Structure formats: C-alpha cells, structure tokens
Amino acid sequence: MSTITIPKEFGWCVLAVGAACFTHLYGSFKVGAARKKYNIQYPQMYAEKSDAHAKEFNCAQRAHQNTLEWLSVCQVLTLVNGIVFPITAACLMGTWTVGRIMYINGYGSGNPDKRMAGALVSHFGDLPLVITTFVAAHKMLA
Q1: Is pLDDT larger for residue 35 or for residue 5?
Q2: In the CATH hierarchy, which fold is given to the domain comprising 10-141?
Q3: Which of 16, 27, 52, 100 is least enclosed, having the fewest CB within 10 Å?
C-alpha cells in the first residue's frame, strides 16, 4: 500500500482552484448583465436568431459555457498534479484563470474573434496540465 504525502506547497494548488471559482462567478455576472441588457428571459439559454441582439448575448453565454466545460477538468488536474508538482500545477491553473477572464471579456464583447487571445493564454494553462498529469503518474509509479 502506498502513502501519499501532500507537500506544504500544495496549499497553492488549493488557492488556485478556489480562485478559479471566481472565473465562473465572473462569467455568470457577465451573462446576467447581458440577459438584462438584451431582455433575454429565463429559462431561455440562448437568444433566438431573430432577437435584435442575439449575437451579443449568445457570445457572452457561449464564453461562460465554454469556461464551465473546462473548469472542473482543470481543477481536478491541478489537484492531481499538485501532489507531485504543486508550484507548477498552481501556476498553470493561475494561467488558465487569467486566460479565461480574457476569454470571457473578449468573446463577451459580441465579436467572437476577440476570444482568441484569452483562448491562447488559457491553453498555456490547460494543455500543460493535461500533459503534466502523465509525467506525475510516471513519477508516482516509478
């Protein structure tokens, strides 16, 4: 039976995972503001194409939904990788979080092309988290 030792620096991973939750809240607030501004009523998830501001609202909603698709994945990967590489994992999660804020702001502007800078920054966080998982697994199994 193996014993897992949590390094002291793992606290940075916990902090990074918690901070990323604010990205979700930020996206929620942006969608709520767009919902109010463009009069898109609940429970309608996306605006119909016939709505005057469908593109603007749908961009804000899509930015939030896409962030939610990756949030839990990145949080789990941060905690798993943090057992072996706590500082690296926390920094990668921080990079993802900053990129997601940029992504939400860019995409939420109503111009889908403005999401690209934030997407690039967030991928500098999420893709290394995926790769590092295999390195951490190898180190644990060796």
Answers
A1: 35
A2: Four Helix Bundle (Hemerythrin (Met), subunit A) (1.20.120)
A3: 52
- Write the DSSP string, the chain: ---PPPPTTHHHHHHHHHHHHHHHHHHHHHHHHHHHHHT--TT-SS--TTSTTHHHHHHHHHHHHHHHHHHHHHHHHHHHHHTT-HHHHHHHHHHHHHHHHHHHHHHTTT-GGGGHHHHHHHHHHHHHHHHHHHHHHHHHH-
pLDDT digits (tens, 9 = 90+) for 77-108: 999 999 999 999 999 999 999 999 999 999 99
- What are the residue ranges spanned by the domains of the chain? 10-141
What phi and psi, each to the nearest 5 degrees, are found at residue 41? -85, 150
